[in-house]
Amino acid sequence: xxxxxxxxxxxxxxxxxxxxxPHIARAAAKSIVVANTGGAFEAAMDAALIKPxxxxxxxxVVKTVNVYAKLKGMVEANxxxxxxxxxxxxxAATFANQGLLEKLDYGVINKSDLIKGAAHESYLQMDxxxxxxxWNTKNVKPAQVPxxxxxxxxxxxxxxxxGMWKQPxxxxxIALMADGVPLDKLYPLDVDRALKSLDRIxxxxxxxxxxxxSAQILIDGDVAxxxxxxxxxxxxxxxxxxxxxxFNQALFVSDALVVPRGAKxxxxxxxFIAFSMEPQQQANFSKLIPYGPTNEKALPLLDKARLAVLxxxxxxxxxxxFQSFDWWAENGSKxxxxxxxxxxx
Length: 345
Fold this sequence. Notes:
Helix content is about 40%, strand content about 20%. It is of the alpha/beta class. It folds into 2 domains: about 5-125 and about 255-310, 3-Layer(aba) Sandwich (D-Maltodextrin-Binding Protein, domain 2), CATH 3.40.190; about 130-255 and about 325-345, Periplasmic binding protein-like II (D-Maltodextrin-Binding Protein, domain 2, 3-Layer(aba) Sandwich). It is globular.
């Protein structure tokens, strides 16, 4: 993934202390504040969504960084500066459960053409990202390439460490797929079984803690293979780095658009989300960053070469499974405690 990935996944469970931050000055009387993760994501969002929205509506957009704890703090203090926020969908589901988000107005937002499960009462999946099997092409010969998570677990297949994200989110699903659980039987997650699966490779795991690190350890050959986000590896692969990945048994995750409870410009916020989910805007966004659209009508607007690298293309989507964001919203805290205890055991 691109360089913002750690910041948007660093806090998935609400309950952290509120952050004291100054009031955000709005650019114009008719304006909204959109919080996002910055970096390449913001650049794509700005070009494909924000600037065209302002050109069409005259509504100015003020951009800010989406510090998750700030959203919780603003809502609880009844002092909400943001109008729209882009969050990891697991975080969005968690905040929705805690009553921190407005209900989305699907009278304004058209959800009829979205992929199944993208539209939720208080959050809307705006893209599709893939957690993939990835490998170093110098250290893993073509005959040794792991085509499944079970083959990634097979230490006899090739030597070297396996990279894993040092978080329970996504790692639990991957461990269960490696242990033979079918994609359509993952949830509810059997956490104990997942930890036993991880036990099999625990001595050979390289624990990475950021998306940038996940790509770098593969490029440098510090690990033979790893779980990694497709967006982190796309540019290095295109640039000739010795990395590759595929979408077989991919775990699909997502960014979501939300409106914090108490947002000052609720009407304009819904208009921005509606605009962002239109087919042309979704297609333009996916042309700039390798995340698939969730509006199915955006797919015909993309050429075959681009569709081949997007997680939500018809071909690639069929090979993986979506993470259950709602399951993690309900069970993330206790699962995290078990995972952390296992790490120390």
